[in-house]
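Reopening this ticket.

The earlier resolution said the output was attached, but the attachment link was broken on my side. Pasting everything inline this time so it's all in one place.
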Amino acid sequence: MLDFIYYPVSFILWCWHKVFGFVFGADNAITWLLAIIFLTFTVRGIMFKPFVNQVRSMKKMQEFAPELKKIQKKYANDRQRQAAEMQKLQKEHGVNPLGSCLPMLLQIPVFIGLNWVLRAFSIQPADGSPKTENYFFDQAGVESYVHAKLFGVNIGDAIHNASMLGGQGGGWHWHVAPVAIPLMILASVLTHLTARHSAQRQNLNPEAITPQTQMMQRLTMYIFPLGVLVFGAFFPIGLLVYWLANNGWTLMQQRLVYTRIDKEEAQKKAEAAEKRNSLAPRPGAKPKPGQKPVQQKKADDGDGAADKPAADGKASGQKPSSKAGSPHRFPQQGQRPQNGSAQKRKKPAQGGKNSGQKGSGQKRR
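Inline output:
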């Protein structure tokens, strides 16, 4: 029924088993564990681009989270209108809500496929004959996996082989616990660290935190790691190794991608600031032709007002003298003379000059 999942998973596992089989031997448990680990890395490498899109989509959603809250508050009694407005806002910002769930959804088929492929190694045919194949693995590959042991424990065994998960020979196998429990604890710790790192990233924007977000953070930080401890007893050693490798990859990928995106945002902000500074006029720069600076224009207006004589013959800020012979008829130092006083000074000067010239002429005669 799900062969379209089982065959690709089996093929990737078969390829990596061949690669490490040349180094450590085809029947070595290390070969099988490394093949499982690199199967995980291969799948996560394929999903790297969707993961980056997921992070960017979540970042955009955090930026316009206040607008979403306004829509929720405005249309609290109209769910249909609220959903339509939220979809419109997400479309304007180019955000797809399903994009943040895509990497997780893609991992589920891989987990199911690997679980079945690993368990199928030890499933015997109904007639009791030896198992001769397991998708891409032939009979030699099946026997190699079945007899591979890690610290004396077969990597296909679980603490409890549940028949509903494809296990054979149901019941508790406590001899598997010394190997399985440390892997379960380590996988649980990595699950918690991965969820906490993601939650810290989301908490950088308090406005984007909603009650639903807080609830999901608690589930991923505490309930999911606890679930690994509980349900890990039903997973074979090989599947626990897959879970451990998957969580380790996720934690390192988050740190690298978040750091890269933060650097890109910082660079964009620096470029925007540099662009604003380049467009702004520099201090002391000359204005463009036909334009005057605001301060210079005000100064010119002030000088023009000072240059204009008073209509009533009064200087600005100086009261005229009531007497013609008053010593205050002359302006103070730095002030311009009044029109009336200037004319009065010119007349005597011209008269004296003419009289002087006339007198000198008479003396020559």
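Reporter confirms the inline version is readable. Residues 6 and 117 are 7 Å apart (CA to CA). Residues 294-328, 340-365 have pLDDT under 50 and may be disordered.
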